[in-house]
Design a protein that fits this description.
169 residues, four-stranded antiparallel β-sheet, 4 helices, 4 strands, alpha+beta
């Protein structure tokens, strides 16, 4: 039986499905962990894990680093719409570039994370965060699995672009 190969620009449904599968795994892991936190922690509860890490329950009604968290409530729907529009664009990019592995991996990570946070905004009106890294009195803003996936995706997207530019020389 001959193996089928796809070019870098392939729009194969098999290639697209693997990236949608990755995004779904990220989304499921994100929502599972958030359901556990919401089920076992009250807002502000914290569990000491190590000298630099706690599990907490925090709510973020804003965007990254609580940007616009203090707004009057409009930001919930604004960030929900932005997330849905971003997910739509990412789906189109995945369909168009599913054979470009690093790019598609990046998009799948960002897609899974974006949808995880959109679900939170629709269900709760805020994003559930629970990973709290700190050093002495300094705390990095709490974050979640979706935020981690978005960060990994963004870093890989930058790497993909740097490699593309380097190949173009």
């Amino acid at each position: 039986m001959a193996r089928r190969t796809f070019s870098a620009g392939s729009t194969s449904s098999a290639g697209m499905l693997q990236w949608l599968g990755l995004a779904t795994i990220i989304l499921m892991a994100d929502q599972f962990t958030k359901v556990m936190i919401v089920g076992f922690y009250q807002l502000g509860d914290s569990t000491y894990v190590t000298s630099f890490f706690n599990v907490v329950r925090a709510h973020n009604s804003g965007a990254a680093f609580s940007f616009l968290a203090g707004a009057s409530g409009w930001q919930r729907w604004f960030f929900t719409v932005v997330g849905v529009l971003a997910a739509t664009l990412i789906l189109w990019l995945l369909k168009s570039h599913s054979g470009q592995k690093l790019f598609a991996f990046s998009m799948a990570c960002i897609l899974g994370g974006t949808l995880g946070n959109v679900i939170d905004r629709v269900l709760y009106g805020y994003v559930v965060d629970f990973l709290d890294f700190h050093w002495k009195t300094w705390h990095f803003p709490a974050f979640n699995v979706a935020d981690s996936a978005i960060t990994v995706g963004a870093a890989c997207l930058i790497l993909d672009e740097l490699l593309r530019v380097r190949r173009g020389r």
